[in-house]
Amino acid sequence: MDKLLALKMFVETVRCGGYSSAASKLGISTSSVTRQVAGLENELGASLLNRTTRNTSVTVAGQTYFEKAVAILDAIDEADAVVADRGSEPQGRLRISVPVEFGRRLIAPHLSRLLERHPGLEISLSLSDQVGDLLSEQIDVSVRLGSSVVSEDIVSKRVGHFERWVVASPEYLARSAALCHPRDLLEHQCLRFDYGGTHQHWTFQSEEAPIQLNVHGRLQSNNADILREAAIGGGGVTLLADWLVREDVAAGRLTRVLEHYEVNPGSASTCINALYLPNHRGSSRINVFIEFLMEILSVLPRGTQTE
């Protein structure tokens, strides 16, 4: 018995809900599927499927076997893709992790174009503001904003740059204390991104020495768009990426303040980096995505100009 072929037929039978449907999908006879699955059951000494005249369902043992079989077949597909991935045209699945709002606003609108360019490429896109473990989470490439490489075993490629703007709604600014100098923020409600620490420092670069402020506020979130919405609603002053609030500033929903200062949380940078494992060097899947990402980011407006 061809064990790999039998596994494929068993998995398709479970997914399709019957032998004939699986056979139709695989382009073979129903008897061939039935014979291969029966061979598996004989070898295992266990029933994998419940059969009636009307339908076919998976047994408890069959469900466990199905999950393991799917993992094996996926691993084989991935191994095939890794070998093919050294060719000129990318083949197989690319697992990408990107920050939530960055992915929704800057990546998602362009994904169809990337897939159209490369018919052999499959994309699995995960949205997370947390830096995941590339190896344990099986991430091929992770896009991170303003974070440094956390390990010498990770390759980091700079793909773009952004700015962080201090913004608040016109209504909030009208009813609050003057905001002309960074230290004035100590008198304001600051809507802060939750980086996991108890304190939040905003560092302003001036012509003299950097100004580091431990800002305070009653709202903190690990989602940038929550802070954006709260700021539009008049909840306070927040520090967000320019690409997230640029349209709001142009439309008058938010006002940029302290624009003569470069500001970042703590010692964070303004680089956009693509991170991947060293054994993925030369991967055509990763290379085409990085090139595509740089293409998208290269047309983003810079500075105070709006479009």
TrEMBL record:
Gene3D superfamilies: 3.40.190.290, Winged helix-like DNA-binding domain superfamily/Winged helix DNA-binding domain (1.10.10.10). PROSITE patterns: HTH_LYSR (PS50931). It comes from the Bacteria. It holds the Pfam family LysR_substrate. Residues 1-59 form the HTH lysR-type domain. GO terms for molecular function: DNA binding; DNA-binding transcription factor activity. Keywords: DNA-binding, Transcription, Transcription regulation. Belongs to the LysR transcriptional regulatory family. This is Transcriptional regulator. It comes from Pseudomonas koreensis.
